[in-house]
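Late entry, evening session. Most of the bench is empty. Finally got around to the prediction I had been postponing all week. Sequence below, unchanged from the version circulated by S.P.
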Amino acid sequence: MAKNFDVVVIGGGPGGYIAAIRAAQLGFNTACIDEWKTRDGKPAPGGTCTNVGCIPSKALLQSSENYEEAGKHFGDHGISMKDLAIDIGKMIARKDAVVKQNNDGILYLFKKNKVTFFHGRGSFAKAGGEGYEIQVKGAADETVTARHVIVATGSSARALPGVPFDEELVLSNDGALRIGAVPKKLVLVGSGVIGLEMGSVWRRVGSEVTVLEALPTFLGAVDEQIAKEAHKAFTKQGLKIELGVKVGEIKPEGKGLSVAYTNAKGEAQRLQADRLIVSIGRVPNTKGLNPEAVGLKLDERGAIVVDDECRTNLPNVWAVGDVVRGPMLAHKAEEEGVAVAERIAGQHGHVNFNTIPWVIYTSPEIAWVGRTEQQLKADGVQYKAGTFPFMANGRARALGDTTGMVKFLADAKTDEILGVHIVGPMASELISEAVVAMEFKASAEDIARICHAHPSLSEATKEAALAVDKRTLNF
């Protein structure tokens, strides 16, 4: 006999598990279905983000950054290192332990909030009566019914045409996070977030890394001035970045791969790679969802079609996160999950796409919110810009990391903040002040007038705001 619920969430990633918890908090009898599992078959909720994305990549970034600091910069602090070595197996094991802590934490939160968890793949069976019938295929197949369904099935890595992932030589983010030994030569196709983060990890521990990017510009979505600063820093570190390339034949060669491509000058080139990481974007994951059983509408990309409030074409069926329009960001999915649960409860859930922060966790970190300078120019918006370099910040000097800057863009007439862009130390944390400021329609002058602790990296934010009016105090 089917188990009945007020809300069933299909998918236990950031959008799904947060939606389930919020729905339960609002008094709904809630279930969450998720099929991720550990190598020994145990439940591993958290989706791509927790298992093969945000969390494990940050763990490896931290480990590799510690190694590089010890090898190249500890001497500046009077700390001598002898016989420095890295144990890649232990590094990967630490990453796995961090992932498990997050998996277990989500299961604990389900229990705490009385969310019923089903381990398996959820798919639509039929619509009828007052809701929907959902099949759960797992160790034991089950059927549940729901008055409301929230689809949060996430996304999958996009493969190169004719070059499927084998996660041994041709790697997605999944395989890139569990390489067992340092590859001598690593080639990345695509200079997006995943490519740059994984390239940074393996370069720091000894790989010769080449990034092949089809676009003629580096980090085209990032403010151009910030992207140029980042490109300069990455190149200095040893990442070889080639722009405007066209990737050709990829074939096995020896124990690795041969990668043919045409460079920006039209010249034929060939690289030998021990491993190839493909980072050319992600596609919505609706495989196995069986949307045709209930008439759920998908677009030409395979994403679920939703309106501004995440409603699908079906009554009481909602969708959030990577499987719908908008940026494929974990925190965007979380906000949509909360908003949908509140809308089901008759409240007014809200997500402001204009103040969603973006972060690339390289070193230097890159973070931004709002519009870029090139976007403002294209839109014909009159603006003022102010920048402040970390080399003039006392805390950055003490840290030994003065790369980068903070940049403010404000309306020329009203002084309202239109965008904030950071490349440098702890940019992922500093950007939150800008997000709060923009949510409250703050002006650059507001930030310039607020007292910031000294010495702190956040003083660079204050100084960049002062620079909008050409009155920096420390540069």
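Two things to note before I forget:
The mean pLDDT is 97.
The radius of gyration is 24 Å.
Will write this up properly tomorrow.
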